[in-house]
Amino acid sequence: MAKTVRIGSGLGFYGDAWEPVVASIERGGVQYIASDHLAELTLAILQKDRQRDMAMGYARDLVPMLMRLWPLMRERGVKFICNAGGLNPAGAAAALRVALATKGWKPKIAVVSGDDVLSLLMNAQPAVPRFAHLFNGAGVETVRERLVFANAYLGARPIIDALRQGADIVITGRVADAALFLAPLVHEFGWKLEDAATPQDWNRLAQGLTVGHLLECSGQGSGGNFGSLGAWQSIPDLAHIGYPIAEVSDDGSALISKAPGTGGRINFDTLRQQLLYEVHDPHAYLSPDVVLDMSTLALDDLGDDRVRVRGATGRPRPAQLKVVAGFRDGHSAEVTWGFSWPDALARAQAAVAMVKTQLADRRVPHEELFIEYPGLNSAHGALAPLPANVDELNEVWVRMVLRTKEKAAADGFGRLFPWMGLSGPAYTCGFHGLHHTGELLGIWPTLIAREAVEPQVRIELSEA
User: Fold this and answer.
1) Residue pair 151/324 in contact by the 8 Å Cβ criterion
2) Residue 191 to residues 33, 172, 194, 252, 396: CA-CA distances in angstroms?
3) What is the model's pTM?
4) Do 367 and 218 belong together in one domain?
5) What is the rounded CA–CA span in Å between residue 37 and residue 49?
6) Does any domain span residue 125?
7) 16's torsion region: left (phi>0), alpha (psi -120 to 50) or beta?
């Protein structure tokens, strides 16, 4: 019988549920779990943790999750790969070792580091146009003194090397989402990676990348967050959703399913929605390891929560790696204020006008006062039509967010409101988030030459 590899989806973001992973391990016959904890903005969240405590900077759900999963994995020989290390993969591994040791558990834990490229951005020569913003072309020198982190998206290679060294758990920093899934396939099947040269080589890698993309968002690949009008109601038992599992063959073709007895739905529609999620160009889906052309893919719905995926086309990998950097970008303060019937919307709008007047009278420095009305236009903004009878609305809430470069201005924003409880529009029904302030981190996407990063990647393997 031809060899196959079964990979299960782990978390799709920092804070996701891991009980569906339990079902995949116990009943899904998986050999690997690949867990993606890092959304585009997660490093900014982890940076705030690290500012409070330099020992942090990793996804804190890693430790309780693996305390739950490791005994199940150990019994079945399942390996775990994740990018939960965030800005501090060594710290994540250290915390995990300590926790596991309290139970006498000692898996082989590999740490992948080297994605931190902050020093390269900080030391770039101003005269050389490097590290420009991907969308507006601005030079990094405009934010250099405010940079606090910069991490390149690594590919599958260091994970493959960690698995070859016998790692049971691999913890990385900023590794590209789908590379977490591609790595065990390259490891198990012996596919060519850096020395891939033929169309067959690239197509196999592209198939592996497709598998990773379909599984990287946990329940979104099995009917969660399914938005098809009139069809989402048919997705069964989302409360006990099963995460996708891929059974992959040597040629890269895969059968996508989920653990028996779990909720959700895997079919042509739920998978094609995930396939196009966060894809700018389906003809050229870029990753550190291969460029995927999705236009040749075929999804064969076999029924019973099974879909065959085949036919991906691959092209040589890019010469550059993506970088996500973060910089200090001022402060924010937020207030949500509610008004009840009658004239709820008119009263909320009058309150906004009073706040704007105070900001002008007091000459409060700010770049923006963001206004939205939750329940009316938060989702669609200016495109959201107002109800025909706005005077009949039972209640309206207005959310006001001040963005400013001055911390003192953010700290003082909340003081504009209390007096209006008695002297402003009537029928106030509560404040939420009054005087909530925080430092803002801006995101700087850019590119870096692969040869500047990959020689710095390191793998540390140890037992807990």
Assistant:
1) yes
2) 20, 22, 10, 10, 58
3) 0.93
4) no
5) 15
6) no
7) beta
Residue 389 lies in a domain: yes
Mean per-residue pLDDT pooled into runs of 10, the chain (464 residues): 93 96 98 94 90 92 98 98 97 97 96 96 72 91 93 97 97 97 98 93 98 97 89 93 98 97 97 94 97 98 98 96 95 94 93 96 96 91 84 91 95 90 87 80 94 92 78
- The domain in which residue 294 lies consists of 4-114+155-316
Closest alpha carbon to 43 in 85, 93, 94, 96: 85
- One domain for residues 362 and 283: no
User: DSSP of 373-433, one letter per residue?
Assistant: -TTTTTTTGGGPPPPTTGGG-SEEEEEEEEEES-HHHHHHGGGGSTTHHHHSSS-EEEEEE
Please indicate, yes or no, if residue 68 is contained in any of the structural domains: yes
Examine residue 150 and state whether it is found in any structural domain, yes or no. Answer: no
* Cβ–Cβ under 8 Å, residues 249 and 271: no
pLDDT number for residue 390: 82
CATH number of the domain encompassing residue 420: 3.30.70.360
- Number of Cβ within 10 Å of residue 422's Cβ equals 8
All residues at 6 or more sequence positions from 197 whose CB lies less than 8 Å from its CB, including other chains: none
